[in-house]
Amino acid sequence: MTDITMQIETPTETPEIPVDQERGSLTQGQLIWRRFLKNRLAVAGGIVILLFYVIMVVFPGFFGTYNYNTQREDAIYAPPQLPQWRDEEGKFHLRPFVYGLETELDFASFEWVHIVDKSKKYPVYFITRGEEYRLFGLFRTNIHLFGVEPPGTFFLFGTDDLGRDLFSRVLQGGQISLTVGLVGVILTIILGSVLGTISGYYGGVMDNIIQRIVELMMSFPDIPLWAALAAALPPEWSPAKTFFAISVILSLRNWTGLARQVRAKVLAYREEDYAVAAQAMGASDRRIILIHMLPNAASHIIVIATLSIPGMILAETSLSFLGLGIQPPIVSWGVLLQQAQQVSVVLERPWLLLPGFFVVLAVLSFNFLGDGIRDAADPYSN
Amino acid sequence: MTNTDASVKDTRQVLLDVKGLKKYFPIRSGFFQKTTGYVKAVDGVDLFIREGETLGLVGESGCGKTTTGRAILRLYELTDGTVHFRSESGEMIDLSGLSKDEMKAIRREMQIIFQDPFSSLNPRMSIERLIAEPLVVHEIGDRASRHKRVVELLEAVGMSGQVAARYPHEFSGGQRQRIGIARALALNPRLIICDEPVSALDVSVQAQVLNIMKDLQEQMSLTYMFIAHDLSVVEHISDRIGVMYLGRIVELTHSEQLYQNPRHPYTEALLSAIPYADPDMVQEEILLEGNVPDPANAPPGCHFHPRCLYAKPICSKEIPQLVPTKDNPEHFVACHRAEELELIPVQPPERLLKQVGG
Description:
The complex is a heterodimer of chains A (382) and B (358). By secondary structure, chain A is of the alpha+beta class. Chain A folds into two domains: 63-164, no CATH class; 169-377, MetI-like (MetI-like fold, Orthogonal Bundle). Chain A has helices spanning 21-24, 28-38, 40-58, 60-63, 166-202, 204-219, 222-231, 239-271, 273-280, 285-321, 333-337, 343-348, 354-377; strands at 84-86, 92-106, 111-135, 139-148. In chain A, strand 3 and strand 4 (139-148) form a beta hairpin. Chain B is an alpha/beta fold. Chain B is built from ten helices and twelve strands. Chain B has helices at 65-72, 100-107, 127-137, 143-156, 173-185, 203-220, 231-237, 255-260, 265-272, 352-357; strands at residues 14-29, 34-50, 54-58, 80-86, 92-94, 110-113, 191-195, 223-228, 240-245, 248-254, 323-325, 328-333. In chain B, the strands form two sheets. Chain B has an eight-stranded mixed sheet, with helices on both faces. Chain B has a four-stranded antiparallel sheet with strand order 2-1-4-5. In chain B, a hairpin with a 2-residue loop joins strand 11 (323-325) and strand 12. Chain B starts with 13 loop residues before the first strand and ends with a helix. At the A-B interface, helix 9 and helix 10 of A face helix 2, strand 6, helix 3, helix 4 and helix 5 of B.
């Protein structure tokens, strides 16, 4: 091509395009990042999500105070113990401490009652040795971020019906709940964009078949469908297998919405002149789809994806809440919330609702993050 | 470039020869998508383009100009007809029978420029990637040589090579259109189908873009098929002009001939509608009654007869063929009364566009 010499006198003067020096030197990626940072809510959401994933998905054992499955007969339904800096005399302690917890049987109601024993103070130590856990499911270790010396106990979120530390369980449960969303969404994106693109680009019989399948899937009521599929899982499957199966079940229903949106986008892009131009220059279907259509649909897909992760988390929570999803002893937020099914919990042991707070926080953060990414990735937004 | 003397036989070789081109779009309805009719967008178009010339194609919206252009490029599967293109070896190849791979090789030779400069450039691609895309598709050159070519092309259309890293939304309509032209030139094609390249632009920018296209044509010996709905724009750039009405060409001849000696009543009506920038000029306008008929349900015989001032009974019965007139073998008309009618010519006024464009 370089042999073509074009000695052409510029027919018009080179147009003066105002050059914003600073802007001109930035790449598209940097511009997107910059626009994203301007949206405070999205940044906050992103930070929360990042923290959640580091703390709960990567290092739940380290950040938790105890092993999430250790049961204690003497600490059933213990209320949360908050760290204290001031003692009853008003003296300030640099190192926070927790008061001791005495357990007595109330002979009137035959229930264990927990009394705060202010005479005993247990200082909180950081990076301390405690109960053993497996890091990444491989290495045995017993180092925790914080803890107190036995016989003191430190139940930040209280304990459940078997005396298990709820804080450690929330972190461990987050590991499952947050990954279900991620794995499910990846499957959703793959299924949704592949089928949506085929449907929109090739049209005709394929389109008809795929769209009828989508309609069929959409006409099923969610919960019964999930329930039926989840119930069909063999109980002898390993937790990892069950977990993966649940993700697949959730995304089986979820891809339909994305497929429709991608199809609509592809139908619109197919009529755009740039797609015709690509065709006219001899570009293959694969190239037109991958270079011209999917990148244009990408911001859409990203938003749908980030916005459907919370849907997945909620779906997993609902399934597990109903006892159909993740089965104990594996924990997820939904499993933890099963205990909140009784009214007495709300009245007498409100700390058992804390996993619900984490669900809300995660879902909200994902929504803010998704909105922020959409606005930032849109090249027309400035 | 304008070869106006009709008596001189043009000896340039024919580059593109279209015969009996038809493109029908099926109308589907019902659950099983049964075909219940056809929109006859292009219904038997004959035309040829000589090497290095510009053929203008005019007509109202919906008359099939764009479909004709795209069908020639095989962007649509043809319903019927042949499209012969002279390959570099001089052999006339029928594009209508080529497979996808064979067609890809020919696509290097023929490109398209679009009407809407906002839709024709992918908003996610930088100018560099946009212009280099034809080179990438045809695996020509490496990164460095492509970049060199992009800068070269940008300069050819009057833009700075520095804009290569920018994105389409940073440019005005006229600048985008020039980027579109640069992309069409990337493969060094011989034929460019220009699908109303200036109708979306301001008049001042129209002139600028038209002048660039004219200059490029001379320097790169390009052949244009220039589609427009505006006779004054077409006149500025075309050697010959074809007038389309409802999927057929009704008149095809040299530009000056068309203006001075129109032989089809529809051409006469079109010419009378050209506005001139002269307040004192009294112009007799021929107002056509009614609208362009539905191409799915075209009138029988001559498609124009329901609106024609000179229609006779034969016009509603027989389809007139596009044939040369007696006194000029280069002047084709599809009208039963072409030889007998005295139609009002138009004296081309001082050309507004040339004054503006310089």
